[in-house]
Amino acid sequence: MLENIEVLYHSSIKINKGGIIYFDPFKIDKEYHDADIIFITHSHYDHYSEEDILKVRKENTCIVAPFDLLDNLLTLDFTKESITTVKPNENYNVNGLTFKTIPAYNTNKSFHPKSNNWVGYLLTLNDTIYYIAGDTDITEENKQVKCDVAFVPIGGTYTMDYKEAAELINEIKPKIAVPTHYAAIVGAKEDGENFVKLLDSEIECKIYIK
Question: 53 and 63 in contact (C-beta within 8 Å)?
Answer without folding.
Answer: yes
